């Protein structure tokens, strides 16, 4: 038997003010679109802003449905919109902000597993890493240089 040690490297910013102007703008857009989330059941709102290599910013917010599996997370709303409307564009950065209407959260909230897998698909497709920034309602922001820090064992087309 052999033990394998897997490490993740994240940068931690104490506030949005520490980000570059471009990153700050992206996170502010994620915060604003979070307010438009349709979350009548979970009361958990998420906003995502994607910066593409063509300069376009694509926004998404979570969209719930009474048939729970039919809803979609903010990150996937934005990613799938990007794939449908900008199929040749690369995603450079993703900013995500999430909080609960019931228990506001200032702890950085990372993408869920399904969103991580969807982001991984685009990293593989475009053959370049995607910088990820995530935060709660406000406060600290975590930055990962690639989805691989959050999902070290990815499932991709090579397994098919």
Can you walk through the features of this model?
With 160 residues, this protein is of the alpha+beta class. The chain contains 3 helices and 6 strands. The relative contact order is 0.19.
Brief synopsis:
Helix content is 25%, strand content 23%. It has three helices and six strands.
Give the topology string: H per helix, E per strand: EHEEHEHEE
Strand percent estimate:
15-25%
Radius of gyration: 15 Å
- The helix-and-strand class reads alpha+beta
| Main sheet strand line-up | 1-6-5-4-2-3
Instruction: Give a count of the beta strands, DSSP E runs of length 2 or more.
Output: 6
Summarize the main sheet: 6 strands, mixed
Mean of pLDDT: 96
Count of DSSP helices? 3
Taking the alpha carbons of the first and last residues, their distance comes to 27 Å
Which oligomerization state do the chains in this entry correspond to?
single chain
Return residue spans where pLDDT drops below 50 for at least 5 consecutive residues. Answer: none
Helix share, percent: 25-40%
Secondary structure blueprint with pairings:
Elements: E1 10-13, H1 21-34, E2 44-52, E3 57-61, H2 74-85, E4 91-100, H3 113-126, E5 131-135, E6 141-144
Parallel strand pairs: 4-5
Antiparallel strand pairs: 1-6, 2-3, 2-4, 5-6
List keywords for this structure.
single chain, 160 residues, alpha+beta, 6-stranded mixed sheet
């Amino acid at each position: 038997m052999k033990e394998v040690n897997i490490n993740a490297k994240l940068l931690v910013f104490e506030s949005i003010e520490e980000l570059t102007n471009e990153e700050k703008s992206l996170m502010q857009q994620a915060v604003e679109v979070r307010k438009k989330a349709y979350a009548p059941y979970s009361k958990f709102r998420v906003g995502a802003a994607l910066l593409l290599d063509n300069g376009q910013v694509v926004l998404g917010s979570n969209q719930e449905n009474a048939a729970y599996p039919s809803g979609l997370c903010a990150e996937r709303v934005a990613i799938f919109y990007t794939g449908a409307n900008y199929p040749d564009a690369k995603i450079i950065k993703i900013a995500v902000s999430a909080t609960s209407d019931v228990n506001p959260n200032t702890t950085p909230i990372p993408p869920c597993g399904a969103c991580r897998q969807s982001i991984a698909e685009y990293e593989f497709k475009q053959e370049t890493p995607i910088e990820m920034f995530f935060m709660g309602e406000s406060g600290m922001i975590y930055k990962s240089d690639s989805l691989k820090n959050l999902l070290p064992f990815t499932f991709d087309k090579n397994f098919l």
